[in-house]
Design a protein that fits this description.
This protein is an alpha+beta fold and 146 residues long. The protein is built from 2 helices and 11 strands; from the N terminus they run αβββββαββββββ. Strands 1, 2, 3, 4, 5, 9, 10 and 11 form an 8-stranded antiparallel β-sheet that branches.
């Protein structure tokens, strides 16, 4: 009887671990805004070029294993990188909404944290979605997140 319980527990643990590895998603979610006056204020690394416009990156959320691990925001002379540890770092109210990656890709749209975005362009591992005239969101499925 003990062998059956041990075997069952081991099998369930292995299946759960394999499922976690198979469903693993490492993503960057980039939110950017077009503002023509900010091009001279921020470093060039803070911009993304899309449809012949330079969009200022407002937030870059980096997820590893579907859990928020970093948040990168621009500042006048540099960028600010905030690293998160799921167990040690308390998330702010804004960050709690983004603590876990809720992302589902469909044919011509992508659902992220309960909001549906229509896909405008796909380039390699990046999906671009314009959600108003001056803002875009980019989903990057990437192995190299730094």
């Amino acid at each position: 009887m003990k062998k059956v319980i041990f075997f069952s527990f081991s099998l369930i643990s292995i299946l759960a671990l394999l499922g976690f590895v198979v469903l693993k998603k490492d993503y960057q979610v980039v939110i950017a805004r077009f503002e023509k006056d900010h091009f001279n204020i921020y470093p060039k690394d803070c911009f993304v070029r899309f449809e012949n416009k330079n969009y200022l990156v407002i937030n870059r959320w980096i997820y590893q294993w579907n859990i928020l691990s970093k948040r990168i925001t621009p500042h006048n002379e540099s960028i600010f990188v905030e690293k998160f540890n799921f167990f040690d770092h308390p998330y702010s109210n804004e960050e709690k909404e983004f603590a876990f990656l809720h992302l589902k890709e469909k044919d011509k749209s992508i659902k992220y944290n309960g909001k549906l975005y229509l896909i405008n362009h796909i380039s390699g591992d990046s999906i671009f979605a314009k959600f108003n005239t001056d803002e875009i969101i980019i989903f990057i499925n990437s192995k190299n997140l730094d």
